[in-house]
Design a protein that fits this description.
This protein is mostly helical. Helices cover 70% and strands 0% of the residues. The chain folds into two domains: 68 residues; 171 residues, Cd81 Antigen, Extracellular Domain, Chain: A (Orthogonal Bundle). InterPro entries: Tetraspanin/Peripherin (IPR018499), Tetraspanin_animals (IPR000301), Tetraspanin_CS (IPR018503), Tetraspanin_EC2_sf (IPR008952).
Length: 244
């Protein structure tokens, strides 16, 4: 009984955590959306936010039903928990499916983004490239030499890459290819893929963890329901009655 009440309290806390994870995915995706065109990847995040909101309502229903020992309320609690459990399993499956698609999606998009880079009058995609190179400490798609194949590099004719390729420790760096030691050596594609896959793993692990909590909640609620229906002494204890 006390365990079930605790689980109801945890459901409200879990709701906040799930909503936070979903929001984190949305915010991070916004930084990398130019490198990943498949918006369906956000479906797990949308679902997990919806589950978080539903968990908050479930927590209230469960706590009220447990305190009042409402058979109907507990049965409703179990059914909703079962639906949420199934939803979280779906989130895990979708997370793994889209995690596997990340590499192909990034490979397809990143070439186009770098090709249209404009460092003189930067648009949203160009600013995204500079942001990613600074944040992930990378340069180019596979390495800094990839910039030599871009239209921007050919138009500037100064044999240099964007300043976002400069290492933080290289204070006098001007992006010149004549000083490669001042530039980040690693390409961005692999790091972007790794970052997006890490984000998807946050969703997967969150869904798995709270699916386990939901399963425990269902078991506890079922035990309470079974005790009410099979144990007359338990019923009398709840109602305040006595044996004749």
């Amino acid at each position: 009984m006390c365990v079930l009440i605790k689980l109801c309290d945890w459901s409200t806390g879990a709701a906040g955590i799930l909503c936070y994870v979903g929001a984190y995915v949305f915010i991070t995706y916004d930084d990398y959306d130019h490198f990943f065109e498949d918006v369906y990847t956000l479906i797990p995040a949308v679902v997990i936010i919806a589950v978080g909101a539903l968990l908050f309502i479930i927590g209230l229903i469960g706590c009220c039903a447990t305190i009042r020992e409402s058979r109907c309320g507990l049965a409703t609690f179990v059914i909703i928990l079962l639906l949420v459990f199934v939803t979280e399993v779906v989130v895990v499956v979708l997370g793994y499916v889209y995690r596997a698609k990340v590499e192909n999606e990034v490979d397809r998009s990143i070439q186009k983004v770098y090709k249209t880079y404009n460092g003189t009058n930067p648009d949203a995609a160009s600013r995204a490239i500079d942001y990613v190179q600074r944040q992930l400490h990378c340069c180019g798609i596979h390495n800094y030499s990839d910039w030599e194949n871009t239209d921007w590099f050919k138009e500037t004719k100064n044999q240099s890459v964007p300043l976002s390729c400069c290492r933080e420790t290289a204070s006098s760096c001007n992006g010149s290819l004549a000083n490669p030691s001042d530039l980040y050596a690693e390409g961005c594609e692999a790091l972007v893929v790794k970052k997006l896959q890490e984000i998807m793993m946050h969703v997967i692990w969150a869904a798995l963890a709270f699916a386990a909590i939901q399963l425990l909640g269902m078991l506890c609620a079922c035990i309470v329901l079974c005790r009410r229906s099979r144990d007359p002494a338990y019923e009398l204890l709840i109602t305040g009655g006595t044996y004749a």
